[in-house]
Amino acid sequence: MPWIQIRINATEKTADKVSNMLLGRGALSVTYMDAEDKPVFEPLPGETLLWDDTVVVGLFDAETDPAPILEFLKKFYRKDLVYKVEQLEDKDWVREWMDSFHPMRFGRRLWICPSWRDVPDPTAVNVMLDPGLAFGTGTHPTTALCLEWLDGQDLTDKTVIDFGCGSGILALAALKLGAREVIGIDIDPQALQASRDNAERNGVADRLSVYLPQDQPEGLKADIVVANILAGPLKELSPLISSLVRPGGKLALSGILESQADGLNQVYQQWFDMDSPELREDWARLSGIKR
User: Fold this and answer.
1) How far apart are CA 132 and CA 41, in angstroms?
2) For residues 124 and 104, what is the distance between their CA atoms, to the nearest angstrom?
3) CATH number, domain at 55?
4) Which value, to the nearest 10 degrees, does the dihedral of the CA atoms of residues 122, 143, 234, 272 take?
5) pLDDT tens, 43-82?
6) Which of the listed residues 35, 69, 167, 217 has the most CB atoms within 10 Å of its CB?
7) What is the mean pLDDT of residues 200-227?
């Protein structure tokens, strides 16, 4: 079915009030958008951060008359109401997303291919991926940086830990590139399920083990650890993540903004000989060897 979308310019202080007013007037859903492309980084647990200039977007049934809603909002805004009313056509949004996800090459050997598309090079190292409800398709620079790093490693007979495995994209890449065993760890049960499903799809399920953090085996160690999460958890969990790497083993970290890279590099220098950060589109990947 088609929809009507009403976009209202708000601020950090007024966004929640506008959201409640739209919901009270029949909005089926309300979302917040950044009006000026300013990033918001890593809220604390239970904290919701909004932008100074926030667009509140209400989605309504196509039969809704927007005039009474706007009149109601004008009483709150007085003369300062800035809005836009848009008609949204009915689409199969899942199909739209699937059509936009194409096979992608990382490094020399590795391709990430949607499970619903043909592989472009049958002789390459091909990972067939269906992200499901978990994060990770390879399109984000942080994931791409990790995939390229894995492609450049000799993973033959290595044990790898994918810390924050999401869809399992890094775990599967490591297995397809020759790792003997990969352990995936994530706080989200849906991520573990997505990783299992993708491992089955790629014929490597017998070499992948996945755990919630509280269930992972004691004394877990690996030759290589990759963690593509966020700078805050990477710093807070640095003693734990470092303890997972055997002496002489390798570490790769991403999900880090360029501005955060040097500080985080210094944290991990307590245990590792760290390389210079690898940068792409304001994001960074860190890597090093355990002393």
Assistant:
1) 25
2) 12
3) 3.30.70.120
4) 60
5) 555 555 556 788 899 999 888 999 999 988 888 776 678 8
6) 167
7) 95
